[in-house]
Amino acid sequence: MNDPExxxxxxxxxxxxxxxxxxQARAVPVYRTTAYSFxxxxxxxxxxxxxxxxxxxxxxxxxxxxxxxxxLAALEGGRAAVTFGSGTAAIYFAxxxxxxxxxxxxAANNLYGGTxxxxxxxxxxxGITTHFTAVNDFEAVEKAINERTRALYxxxxxxxxxxxxxxxxxxxxxxxxxxxxxxxxxxxPPTLLRQIEHGADIVxxxxxxxxxxxxxxxxxxxxxxGKFDWSDPKFALYNEPDRGYHGMRFAHDLGDEIPLxxxxxLRFVGLRNQGAALAPDAAWIFLQGVESxxxxxxxxxxxxxxxxxxxxxxxxxEWVRYPGLPDDPSWPIASKYMKNGFGGMVVFGxxxxxxxxxxxxxxxxxxxxxxxxxxxxxxxxxxxxxTHSQLSDEAQREAGLQPELIxxxxxxxxxxxxxxxxxxxxxxx
Length: 429
Hints:
By secondary structure, the protein is of the alpha/beta class. The protein has helices spanning about 10-15, 40-50, 65-75, 85-95, 115-120, 140-145, 165-175, 235-240, 260-275, 280-310, 330-335, 355-365, 395-400, 415-425; strands at about 80-85, 105-110, 130-135, 150-155, 180-185, 200-205, 220-225, 315-320, 345-350, 370, 380, 405-410. It folds into 2 domains: about 10-280, Type I PLP-dependent aspartate aminotransferase-like (Major domain) (Aspartate Aminotransferase, domain 2); about 295-425, Aspartate Aminotransferase, domain 1 (Alpha-Beta Complex). It is about 35% helix and about 15% strand. It has a 7-stranded mixed beta sheet with strand order 1-7-6-5-4-2-3, sandwiched between helices. It is globular, with a radius of gyration of 22 Å. The model has no long low-confidence stretch (mean pLDDT about 95).
């Protein structure tokens, strides 16, 4: 069902699945199976040696997860995907599936706070160094690249400042130096933007956000474009025999599957040996979200634009950021890539600074105050004191996070009710 002639709305409903062969069930079943029987000893040996495809243990693969992986790969235009127990785990394993001790990563500095901390504080404990550069500062990126650099990492739209990355220019730099480009596209699901079409090699999503769409599950996914050549000796993890997997050299010993070396290693080294697997019940929940994703993202984008236009005219609002506003700093880049809407995130600053921002958050109705985005319901938070509070003041400023910034994830409620709630809260400050 990965027929390239099908439109993305059709793929969201059908890709990766046929009616269940055992029962003819049309909806994707939930397989709560931990382990799978082998036909005989030889069959088990062939599965473990990867001479034959099939189910072994749910930490490695599961039929429900398999549909989700195939469906997201189809939506992104990738060749394969691997699910994880959280978006944070997906990011970590995507990076450490390439880099090892002594290697270096170059990342934009406008990352989500949890990702920034992972790169800035956790990876150095494993001997991996990250160099942060301002988003779209390609001169700085070029200067940071050296003989130890192994990947570039960006977010399509930064969290929370909403700065849009020029994906094709990052891809050009990555190709010039034969480096994979990893893109966190959580804020821009594939119905809005397909990263691989613009040069991304690896795409990461938090499934917990718009793809799931209802705040009911935690999960992540890594999509492999299947086009990067890992046989370059500088990618040691793909060219040296793997002690944990039969001496496998992933860039050489997979036969016809060599283009998928990244996703194979991610599954058989990352999931098998480190275990951050996604539960099948969560995979099923996310599949329900995928089916309505095109419709929901269109409405999220429509409502968010209306909210941004309202806030821009309000006298108590100092500034507004939304990539879909023609005068927004991100408009030239966002409009180049995002042809089906600009997403559901709006950030703005209130007059009066942090104290007034927190007062507004505490007095708004309809919106839920919580540390999530991408829900069908409208959400609000003050990032400087919550989601990004682990960053230093300097790091917050470099990421475009100002003390008065309020982050909105605009939901699917009637737009008049959303705007009325914001107007009433603004009247109280």
